[in-house]
């Protein structure tokens, strides 16, 4: 019987025995508290470690968005202010440019008016009575100058009957233009005897005075030096005068 009991205890079918240590409950509470503290510390560490990879939190992101929005509003306000200043400067420049253009136009108009007044002054001065020894038709003034286009010249002539004329003078004007071209001297007859160009514009019919104006063309590269002006009536030269240019 004893042998059977011994064998039964030594085999697998022997009954299990559990050994439990009996700890006081304060120690158990302390262990539980330490376990909770360790778990909380581990959670905080995991959270902070995760923030380094996941980026800033919602509150920080909201604060950063608010700051950037404020800076954006300030930049927009500064942009609008500078745009308004630029618009004002542009408007001022347009006004000044318009004023300059108006002044330039007025200056050009005044120069034109001054030239006209000088011509009128020369004209009226030329109407002064000729010398007591002068009789018949007199050339009072002559001018020839470039007319803006290459080789084109404009001339102005004033002729007058001295004294107290009793009838109209009927005649014509003939001009001989002396010019230099390529180092050689040439002459140009106006009007051209071969074609009669400008004959009508050089006709004279007047009682006291007559102004004659027109243009003529010189050969390319020609430079006018002098002009001989003749007043002809009935096939005879009534008066002539040479004008240096």
Give a description of the structure.
The structure is a single chain. The protein is of the alpha+beta class. It has a domain at 137-244: Sandwich (Immunoglobulin-like). The protein is built from three helices and eight strands; from the N terminus they run αααββββββββ. The protein has helices at 2-10, 25-54, 58-126; strands at 137-146, 152-161, 169-181, 184-190, 203-206, 209-217, 223-233, 236-244. Strands 3, 4, 5, 7 and 8 form a five-stranded antiparallel beta sheet that branches. A three-stranded antiparallel beta sheet has the order 1-2-6, with helices on one face. β3 (169-181) and β4 (184-190) form a beta hairpin. The chain is rod-shaped and about 180 Å long. The N and C termini lie far apart (168 Å). The mean pLDDT is 79.
Helix/strand layout:
Layout: H1 2-10, H2 25-54, H3 58-126, E1 137-146, E2 152-161, E3 169-181, E4 184-190, E5 203-206, E6 209-217, E7 223-233, E8 236-244
Give structural attributes.
Immunoglobulin-like, alpha+beta, rod-shaped
What percent strand? 25-35%
At the fold tier of CATH, the topology name of the domain at 137-244 is: Immunoglobulin-like
SSE order, as H and E? HHHEEEEEEEE
- Count of helices? 3
Shape: rod-shaped
The CATH C-level name of the domain at 137-244 is: Mainly Beta
The largest sheet, given as strand count, sense and whether it forms a barrel, is: 5 strands, antiparallel
The assigned structural class equals alpha+beta
* Global Rg: 59 Å
Our measurement of the CA-to-CA distance between the termini, rounded to an integer number of angstroms, reads 168 Å
CATH architecture term of the domain at 137-244 = Sandwich
Number of strands: 8
The residue-averaged pLDDT reads 79
Q: Approximately how much helix is present in the residues? A: 40-55%
Low-confidence parts: none
């Amino acid at each position: 019987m004893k042998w059977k009991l011994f064998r039964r205890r030594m085999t697998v079918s022997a009954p299990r025995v559990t050994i439990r240590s009996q700890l006081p409950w304060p120690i158990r509470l302390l262990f539980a508290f330490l376990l909770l503290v360790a778990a909380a510390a581990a959670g905080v560490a995991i959270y902070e470690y995760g923030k380094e990879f996941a980026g800033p939190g919602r509150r920080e992101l909201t604060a950063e968005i608010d700051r950037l929005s404020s800076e954006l509003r300030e930049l927009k306000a500064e942009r609008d202010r500078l745009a308004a200043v630029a618009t004002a400067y542009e408007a001022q420049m347009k006004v000044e440019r318009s004023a300059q253009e108006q002044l330039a136009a007025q200056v050009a108009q005044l120069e034109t008016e001054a030239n006209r007044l000088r011509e009128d002054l020369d004209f009226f001065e030329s109407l002064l009575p000729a010398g007591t020894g002068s009789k018949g038709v007199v050339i009072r003034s002559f001018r020839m100058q470039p007319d803006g286009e290459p080789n084109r010249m404009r001339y102005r002539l004033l002729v007058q009957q001295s004294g107290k004329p009793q009838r109209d003078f009927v005649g014509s004007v003939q001009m001989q233009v002396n010019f230099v071209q390529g180092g050689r001297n040439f002459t140009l007859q106006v009007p051209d005897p071969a074609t009669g160009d400008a004959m009508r514009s050089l006709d004279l019919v007047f009682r006291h005075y007559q102004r004659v104006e027109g243009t003529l063309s010189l050969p390319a590269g020609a430079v006018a030096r002098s002009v001989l002006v003749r007043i002809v009536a009935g096939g005879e030269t009534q008066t002539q005068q040479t004008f240096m240019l």
